[in-house]
Amino acid sequence: MTFEPLLDAPIAIQIHIAAVIPAALLGAYLLARPKGTPRHRLLGKIWLALMVVTALSSFFIHQINMFFGFSPIHLLSIFVLSGCWGAIVNARKHNIEAHKRIVRSLYFGGIVGAGAFTFFPGRIMNKVAFDGDDIAPLLVAACIAVALLWLMSKEIWRRRRLT
Fold it and tell me: Which residues cross the membrane (predicted)?
């Protein structure tokens, strides 16, 4: 594992990573913890702000140049921005089911799904995670697997308690 590719990357990519990593961690925490509390509301606002910074910064990243500097991944950024707005509107209207659905899709589509593509060969995060050390790929994969299993088990136990 080496941070050289990230440190040598353009400022837009550094801002993007600086927002998305805490958003990923905070989002996992929020999904696993009780909802509707003052802490949840405060951390949720911070999470949404991080998601907006992540999405906006992506418009200045043009490494995959398919159409005038943009690529299909930029459509995801538009989805994230509109989803953030939808999450706020639905929370204020007390439409909690829609709020939950939007936030989960933002997290699993915008962070987990899109994040998986950043580890493809040739991408900066692939170089960060997998260059320089033979054991690093195994550790990264193990950490991601443990985090996903933990989140899924929390959700399964929560659903069992409701039925």
Answer: 12-30, 42-61, 67-90, 102-120, 135-152
